[in-house]
Predict the structure.
Amino acid sequence: MKPETQTQARAIEATEATDVEPSPPETAQAEGRTVRIPPKPTRAPRKRTPKLDELLAGAVDQARAALQGLAEDDEIGDHVGTVADDDRLVTHRFTATLAGYGGWEWFVTVARAPRSKTVTVCETGLLPGTDAILAPDWLPWSERVSQEEKIRLDAIAAGEDPEAAVARARSAAEDEAPDEDEPQDEDGPAAEPQA
């Protein structure tokens, strides 16, 4: 017997003795070889709330100065708040007073290296606040387009007159629609009176 076969036979014997099925080891193919994948750790990493860095939280004036290239002084409103994103990484938010951007806020993310006193601007931008007016959800073209427009585009693709195709479709729809003048019986066509 080959060594691999002997090992498998021993595993089967051990399984039969304990009546427990062994779980097959996870493997992957790499360059024509089978490689065993080590099991994933079962304990989840601990998540903790980052501590607000006092030096970065106090850098409100530096954050406001970072917005000078994006907006005029009158377009940057009051300081709204500070959020600790991670260790030594803080985001400042300012009210945006831009026309058409009611409820939006400027943001400036600042950071510093460990044991450093130098504040560095990482990112600036404009984000919607909680009461900001946002555009409606995007709909694909196939859901926005009308049936008439689909008929026009199909006619153009076929090399036909689009207005003639729309007229044909309208007349076909009118032919299929029941006449409102005729009384309709729920059971079918109206019965002829008997003499």
Summary: DSSP finds six helices and six strands in the chain. The helical segments are 3-18, 54-57, 60-66, 141-144, 147-158, 162-176. The beta strands are 27-30, 33-36, 76-86, 89-96, 104-111, 120-128.
